Amino acid sequence: MADNNINPVSAVIKDGKVENLDTKKASKDMNSAAGYDKDSFLKILVAQMKYQDPMEPTSNTEYISQYATFTQVEQLTNMANAMSLSRASEMVGKTVTIRQVNADTGKTSEVQGLVDMVTYSGNKAYLTINGNSYSIDDVVEVINSDYIEERKLVEDFINNLDKLPANLDKLSLGEHGSTILTMYDYYDNLSEKTKTLIDKDHVTALNQYKSRIDVLNAAMGDFEKSIENLPNDPEKITLEEHGETIDKLFEYYGALDSATKQVVEDDYKEALLGYVNRIDDLRGNTHRTLLNK
Q: pLDDT digit string (tens) for 83-104?
């Protein structure tokens, strides 16, 4: 009758010899079956001696060789287990990625989180993440906490960049200017290592947005400078000398979107309105109006 207490071993005793025991397979089994050690070997050895062919008994040398093989395998297994347990202990407080395959559906799922603690059972380590236990064998990534923080910052940066208009012509100095300049400065101050986490397409887009805002800022600067160069006294404005310039300034302001008009300082608006009224008076026209919308 089979001894249910004997650890299952893939070996067959025939004429006192182990027929199908593969030391490589034994090593693999020792990793997967808890309790497979020298005791298991001794049980096999006793069975081998009990059922050996008395006419061709197994030599002592062969017994010693088999014992040495099992001892070596056990030592290697113990060493591997010790290294695994040590590696597991070092994961406490670190972020890891767990990958598991559903045996029924074949689908792969991943869990990422901070390792709260490590428990040991049957020479095996289990990681506790958010209250759930996972085998250390299922760990596929151990992630540095600084990297996690950098990646989160980069993801937020990219998400904000994606919210900007895809068409550069739809950029508004008033609505998008400050945001784009802030994002550009933020990117410029990132470490070279963090910059590598941002794909080239988004870097190119950022540079294009920055260039467009620079153009709009330059145009606004020219607008303000042109107003400053006009005579402070509206009575000194002449149709011949200033009429065309003031008309262009009026057209520029009128073409601005409402958000950008809001960033034009009131002093410039009031000055422009006074100059426009002066030109309209000289022409005998009805006064034009500066709309803020």
A: 666 677 777 888 889 999 888 8
Q: What is the dihedral of CA 261, 264, 266, 271, to 10 degrees?
A: -100
Q: What is the pLDDT of residues 31-60, one digit of tens each?
A: 444 445 566 767 777 777 677 766 666 666
Element (H, E) at 14: strand 13-14
pTM (two decimals)? 0.59
Closest CA to 209 of 175, 256, 253, 255: 175
- For residues 188-199, one letter each, b for 16 or more C-beta atoms within 10 angstroms of the residue's C-beta and e for the rest, the string is eebeeebeeebe
CB 250 within 8 A of CB 276: yes
Neighbours of 18 (CB within 10 A): 18
Distance from C-alpha of 257 to C-alpha of 58, rounded to nearest angstrom: 98
- Please name every residue paired with 13 in a beta bridge, in sequence order, or none if there are none: 18
In which order are the strands placed within the sheet that holds 95-101?
132-135, 124-129, 108-121, 95-101, 139-143
The answer to whether residues 99 and 110 touch, using CB atoms and an 8 Å cutoff, is yes
